Amino acid sequence: MKHALHFIAMMWREESRWMLLGALASLAALFSAIALLGLSGWFITAAGLAGIAGIGLTFDFFSPSSGIRFLALFRTATRYGERLATHDATLRFLAKLRANLFSSIAKGGNASRRFRSSELLQRLTADLDAIDALYLRVVLPVAVAVVLAAVAAALLSMVSMPAVLVVLAAIVASVLAIYLGARVARKSARRLAIGSESLRVRTIDLMHAQTDLALAGGLETQQARIAKAGRYVANAGMSLARIEIAASAAIALIGAGLTLSLLVIGAKAIEAGTVVGPLMALLVIGGF
To answer: Contact 64/43 with Cβ under 8 angstroms?
Structure first.
């Protein structure tokens, strides 16, 4: 965790402008997506109720339709801007980091003396891949989700406090599912990292020493060692995939429970006359 925070701080110092721009674009894209779903739900519900009431001819179809088109285009534009800014910042940071690392290795740094060339190549490749995913798949989604949850809770509190409590409970349950999944996956992830390093090292050793191995009769033995490492990596990857599927299923069940709870709360609010049907459709679809 300490090393992850160190790299995040380094990236922020190097690419703070683009990282902030990407975070704002990601937040805008999510808000527009939620608004698009909510407005669509409101529009369909309101149009249906207007038709049932016999006032379909006087219902304004054009304003909601134009809003839906605008939000769809805005979501596409902000999503493209978010990808452009965040990936550009990440790739430029990794380019600088790679240059510094290989420069240190060329000068005979500590890393080049501690590991063989194949081990060093595996460590550099794996660590740089992990840094690549750190901001794009961990830091940015978590930060945007926290801001989005706070805004959603504030908006829902103006309409229904039980809905706020249900949404917060769903968020806590989702975070707990992710945390438990990460704890369970730690052993398999370690096995995958060790197995990948062993597979790469054995493969590179085979390529470098294939003539000597062939002369000594050890070629088949080395190939068997590579195959064994490959099976080890495959088993670790399958274990991680099963854990990911279980965590995704748990989050999907939490989302379904959230939708059902919001529907029940909405039905009670409509019966009490505190909320009209189209507005509740907007809140339920947007809250989900």
So the answer is: yes
| Rounded Cα distance, 106 and 110, in Å | 11
pLDDT digits (tens, 9 = 90+) for 198-254: 888 888 888 888 777 777 888 888 888 889 989 999 999 999 999 989 999 998 999
| d(C-alpha 110, C-alpha 180), whole Å | 36
| Alpha carbon distance 118, 99 (integer Å) | 19
The whole-model pTM stands at: 0.68
Q: Are residues 285 and 37 in contact, defined by beta-carbon separation less than 8 angstroms? A: yes
Counting Cβ atoms within 10 Å, is residue 85 exposed (0-12), middle (13-18) or buried (19+)? Answer: buried
Which of 67, 77, 73 minimizes the C-alpha distance to 40?
Answer: 67
Hey, what are 253's tokens? Answer: 């069940």
Q: Give the Cα separation of 282 and 61 in Å (integer).
A: 16
- Three-state secondary structure string covering the chain: CHHHHHHHHHHHHHHHHHHHHHHHHHHHHHHHHHHHHHHHHHHHHHHHHHHHHCCHHHCCCHHHHHHHHHHHHHHHHHHHHHHHHHHHHHHHHHHHHHHHHHHHHHCCCHHHHHCCHHHHHHHHHHHHHHHHHHHHHHHHHHHHHHHHHHHHHHHHHCCCHHHHHHHHHHHHHHHHHHHHHHHHHHHHHHHHHHHHHHHHHHHHHHHHCHHHHHHHCCHHHHHHHHHHHHHHHHHHHHHHHHHHHHHHHHHHHHHHHHHHHHHHHHHHHHHHCCCCHHHHHHHHHHHC
The answer to whether the beta carbons of residues 280 and 36 sit under 8 Å apart is no
CB 88: neighbour CB atoms within 10 A? Answer: 14
Q: How big is the CA angle at 178 (ends 173 and 181), to the nearest 5 degrees?
A: 120
Is 90 within 8 Å of 128 (Cβ atoms)? no
Q: At 56, list the tokens.
A: 């379909």
